[in-house]
Design brief:
Keywords: DNA-binding, Phosphoprotein, Transcription, Transcription regulation. One of its GO terms (molecular function) is sequence-specific DNA binding. One of its GO terms (biological process) is phosphorelay signal transduction system. This protein is of the alpha/beta class. The chain has four domains: about 120 residues, Response regulator (Rossmann fold, 3-Layer(aba) Sandwich), CATH 3.40.50.2300; about 150 residues, Alpha-Beta Plaits (2-Layer Sandwich), CATH 3.30.70.270; about 90 residues, no CATH class; about 100 residues, Homeodomain-like (Arc Repressor Mutant, subunit A). It is built from 22 helices and ten strands. The strands form two sheets. It has a five-stranded parallel beta sheet, sandwiched between helices. Strands 7-8-6-9-10 form a five-stranded mixed beta sheet. Helix 15 runs parallel beside helix 18 and helix 16 packs across helix 17. The longest helix has about 40 residues. The relative contact order is 0.06.
């Protein structure tokens, strides 16, 4: 608010005074001259069109005088501020206006630049107070609405009070399609990401294109105004997602790649009884979590059909044969995982549990034919595969298994991943993001993220975090830098997040670690 110029509209029937006020150095006051009018009726039209923050108006004018204009403004735009210009004979009108909420009044002959500067400062302070009050009121409403949505989304019963509450809040946008934004992140990271998401949404919501409400600590429901069908809601969410991506990368560069944001467009709401099924349809399914790419939006209708089983697919037998042929050749098996299994599963989106069972069956068959494949960690890897939350994790676990029980020299990591690691090491203290590194190596951020995990066995953000924590430990042990200076040296300008990360990594707070 302090950086945004206050928009000022001048209203007076005397042209010389308007010219004098128009020529003032408004930018030096922290304001901009929005326009001018010669009577109250014309000023009202400009208020509608220009939405000024401050109206400076004469009291005595033809057609509609300043007092009539003041009352009309306060009735329609209660947060718009008004300053009155008076002659001595208008004094009692000015005093009456102050009682009704005018910001200030000045006599025309004694008006100075300092008076206008003071009025602009008062306007800015008033707008800030009003903004804080509105934000507080919105937060209160969201908290109450959130309780109702949680009940409607997850409860077995659907209380009419909660249903009515949601309809009262969002029914004015009907018909609408609720969109559920899902945050997939470690518990330790979730608070920081969600805080920034809510900040961004609160700023974006001022345009009133949509309403939003958090559900717990990992989901947010959005409702778009003027989006009467799935396509319009999808387009609205894609715009929001693009803004979130850009601003989160800027606000949290040190957490890039540590979380996924995905969204689902739910069912149609045209009446109160549609609220419950529409909200429940927007829930993220296990398959969407397993296959979903970050920053994407899907339709609930796309996930409604039964997911296929890989065993039933026409290409399943060919994949089995390739697996048997490649089982004794680690390089061939690695290519099969990366170039065969991963794209095949992603393209057909098999039921995640059935896909894991399919992979488990192939491993069992291969180990029966080649005894050396049944290594000491075979059962542990089986459990890891069954627990894999995403396709990327599943493929990564398969690739890591190839290193078990081998005395072979370490295989050569792909040049793009080697280049990414060099960039990270060279720029560790800078705002590194998955997007910026992927651009430097010439890959999409999604592909680099997947490739990095598969090739190194470590997620992109986990790798950066490990290097940063190792460097932080070294700096705390060997230098006199303060903790916040160490945080900045390793590329984490948030002292709070750095402290939390360091404690998770070492088991003690950085201040305690420094003391020894």
């Amino acid at each position: 608010m302090s950086d945004t110029p206050i928009r000022v509209l001048i209203v007076d029937d005397e042209l010389p005074l308007r010219q004098e006020l128009r020529s003032l150095p408004w930018s030096s006051f922290g304001a901009e001259f929005a326009g001018e009018a010669e009577n109250g009726e014309e000023a009202l039209e400009l208020c509608e069109k220009l939405q000024p923050d401050l109206v400076v108006t004469d009291i005595t004018m033809p057609i509609m005088n300043g007092m009539e204009l003041f009352r009309a403004i306060k009735q329609k735009w209660p947060f718009m501020q008004v300053v009155l210009l008076t002659c001595h004979s208008d004094f009692h009108y000015a005093q009456e206006a102050l009682k009704l909420g005018a910001l200030d009044y000045f006599t025309k002959l004694a008006l100075e630049e300092g008076d206008l500067q003071a009025s602009i400062d008062k306007t800015r302070a008033s707008l800030r107070r009003e903004q804080d009050l509105r934000r507080y009121g919105q937060e209160q409403l969201r908290r109450e609405l959130s309780k109702g949505i949680v009940t409607l989304s997850h409860g077995e019963a659907a209380p009419l009070t909660a249903q009515s509450q949601v309809w009262a809040a969002w029914g004015g946008s009907a018909p609408f399609y609720p969109v559920r934004l899902h945050l997939d992140a470690k518990e330790s990271d979730r608070f920081h990401v969600l805080y920034e998401i809510e900040r961004i949404l609160a700023e974006a919501e001022a345009q009133p294109a949509f309403h939003w409400c958090p559900i717990g600590d990992r989901e947010i429901v959005l409702v778009f105004a003027d989006a009467p069908d799935e396509a319009a809601s999808m387009a609205g969410m894609q715009r929001v997602m693009a803004r979130l991506h850009a601003e989160l990368e800027q606000a949290l560069p040190y957490m890039s790649g540590a979380y996924r944001l995905m969204a689902v467009v739910g069912g149609r709401v045209a009446a109160p009884h549609d609220v419950v099924p529409a909200l429940r349809a927007s829930a993220m399914t296990p398959a969407q979590l397993f296959y979903g790419r970050p920053w994407t939006t899907a339709l609930a209708s796309e996930a409604a059909h039964m997911l296929p089983a890989p065993d039933e697919h026409p290409e399943a037998q060919a994949l089995r044969l390739r697996w048997q042929e490649a089982a004794a050749d680690k390089d061939a098996l690695r290519r099969l995982y990366q170039e065969g299994l991963a794209p095949w599963a992603a393209a057909h989106r098999f039921d995640p549990d059935k896909l894991k069972a399919f992979v488990g069956g192939l491993r069992e068959a291969a180990s029966a034919a080649h005894a050396q494949l049944r290594h000491a960690q075979f059962d542990a890897v089986t459990a890891e595969l069954r627990a894999a939350p995403t396709l990327t994790e599943l493929i990564s676990a398969c690739l890591r298994e190839l290193e078990h029980g081998t005395a072979e020299p370490a295989r050569r990591v792909r040049k793009e991943v080697q280049q990414a690691r060099r960039i990270i090491e060279q720029k560790l203290g800078e705002p590194l993001t998955l997007t910026s590194v992927s651009e430097e190596v010439g890959l999409s951020s999604y592909y680099l993220s997947r490739l990095f995990k598969e090739e190194t066995g470590e997620a992109f953000n986990d790798y950066i975090t490990r290097l940063r924590m190792e460097k932080a430990v070294h700096l705390l042990q060997t230098t006199q830098l303060k903790v916040y200076e160490v945080a900045e040296h390793v590329g984490i300008p948030s002292y709070r997040y750095f402290s939390q990360l360091f404690r998770n990594w070492t088991g003690v707070a950085p201040t305690e670690y420094k003391k020894g």
